[in-house]
Write the structure tokens for this entry.
Amino acid sequence: MVISAHSKEDTFRMLSVIPDPEIPVVNIYEMGMLRDVLITDKGYEIILTPTYTGCPAMGIIEQDIKMTLKKNGVFPVTVKMVYDPPWTTDRMSDVAKKKLKAYGIAPPLHSSCTQDVFNNNIIECPRCHSGDTVLISRFGATACKSLYKCNNCKEPFEYFKCH
Amino acid sequence: MTEQDALYKYCLRLGDDALIHSYRLSEWCSNAPILEEDLALTNFALDMIGRAQLLLTYAGQLEGKGRTDDDLAYRRSEREYFNHLLLELPNGDFAHTIARLLFSSVWEYYFFNELQHSRDTTLAAIAAKTVKEVKYHMAHATDWAIRLGDGTEESNHRMQKAIDDLWMYTGELFETDEQTAILRDKNIAADMAMIKAKWRQEIERIIGEATLTMPKDEYMQTGSSTGIHTEYLGHILSEMQYLQRAYPEATW
């Protein structure tokens, strides 16, 4: 028997401070990974949507959720991964995109559901805001990012790929 | 064969494809021609291992014997693996790795595009996720095939040899059997005839743009749908499964 001492809103608020382990400047709520909190007589069920199928951060996020809620006296907790509908970069909030840019990562232009993922997109340099940038590598240090170089300020930077 | 059995084997096969191709691409880690390529190939390997986890976990649930994704990956022998032969072949030179990625990613693109409309909602969700990732693999393989084919005399020669060498392993990708027929009738499996036509058209387009010549359809290798493999799979498994075979249930 669970006494719902914590409302759905409270639980959301507690979870919203959990950072993305790969990009700690944004949290899992802003990234659109935290989908729902279900409170039933069996406890609290946290519904998560993984960004990339092979993203190693998902295991860490699951642990962080359990620890955060335990600290706040919320239990019992289960974490469920839901793949339908799939996560896309459209789920990322505008706040998250602004934070990414301030952190030095160019935010995604759109979701990969559109046809023009690979069509001469102009990716603005997050440092000097020049549009004169060039793709160095479509793949970077994590599954979600590509590498670019700015021809104006000459700095390399990461771009969060459309997904 | 019941629908449940057929679906189990269908998911197992797709999971094995992702797992074995991922293994091969991981072998390029720290060995690729340039750093960016090292990142690209291992990124694909990561996408594929994620896909393998989803598919093998689901296969384990369908089987109903309590086997996890790890059990299925580490405790099955060669004859119980159903990945397509193409994906277990050695990496060869860079052109061979690109040819394998080209043939398989174009196939996966059309295949998972179809499968995302499957009546089985779990499979449809995995397919929808996979399409997004495969688009990047396909774009990369296409770029390289064209760059090498339409490059120097040497790179053209090597790319042509790679597609010629691997061509006989592409026939298998479109085979259908009893299990796919059962699932096809229920709108669970994808329609291979349609995928074959689209695959062929796209491969022809890319090979043309790369100034290469389409290989002739001659003898096609087959066998993986019944667990008959090339000599290479056994060597992959002996390395991949060593730890779990020597120290069952080992964790860290």
Chain B touches chain A through 26 residues (CB under 8 Å). Residues 35-63 of chain B form the longest helix (29 residues).
